[in-house]
Write a structure and sequence with these properties.
Length: 194
């Protein structure tokens, strides 16, 4: 019986734990805003998880953070935790993280690794998908019309664009320094010489 499978499973569990911890630690960097949804660096951790771990493993790291929050641990921005966060104004953004990392991971696995692919994946999955889930839920919870909630969410955009740039820089540097950290990317087959 080969020991590579248990070793691989341990490595995957270790990556899930590391990225969950990273997301939690980045939650300590917060800028409070009116409306109950603070600007945090946690979405930077979510973007990095999607970029590095891929569409199958990254959601597990995010779900671990959400599970810890659900049992009451203060793992979300501002030391929040408990089931109440899943019915508050930020609930949709938290659920959007799960969809967002899947999109980021899928976009990163569709071709060769490039900085622009990392930036595009972070923008589409880490910002647009998270907003697409978060804004409607925030509007529903707060009772503010959807268009006004979307307009107020523009306050988050500059910070999120900075996080996209930071995630891109970090992942490009990591790819150069330690390419084994990334699952194999699908690349177009090389043409066969005649």
């Amino acid at each position: 019986m080969s020991t590579s499978h248990p070793a691989r499973s341990s490595a995957v569990l270790g990556r899930i734990a590391v990225f969950s911890a990273l997301i939690v630690v980045l939650g300590t960097v917060i800028v409070p805003l009116p409306g109950g949804v603070p600007i945090t660096a946690q979405t930077l951790g979510v973007m990095l998880a999607g970029l590095v771990l891929g569409p199958r493993v990254a959601p597990l790291a995010v779900l671990l953070v959400l599970a810890l929050a659900a049992i009451g641990l203060p793992v979300l921005a501002g030391g929040r935790g408990g089931l109440g966060v899943f019915v508050g104004p930020s609930a949709g953004y938290l659920l959007g993280w799960v969809a967002g990392v899947v999109v980021i991971g899928l976009l990163m696995r569709t071709g060769r690794f490039t900085w622009w692919r990392a930036a595009t994946a972070s923008l589409l999955g880490g910002v647009l998908v998270v907003y697409a889930v978060g804004i409607p839920v925030q509007a529903l919870v707060t009772g503010v019309p959807l268009d006004l909630t979307a307009l107020s969410s523009l306050a988050f955009l500059p910070g999120d664009l900075i996080k996209v740039a930071a995630a891109t820089l970090v992942v490009v540097a990591l790819k150069r320094a330690y390419p084994r950290a990334f699952p194999a990317h699908r690349t177009p087959p090389e043409p066969v010489a005649a």
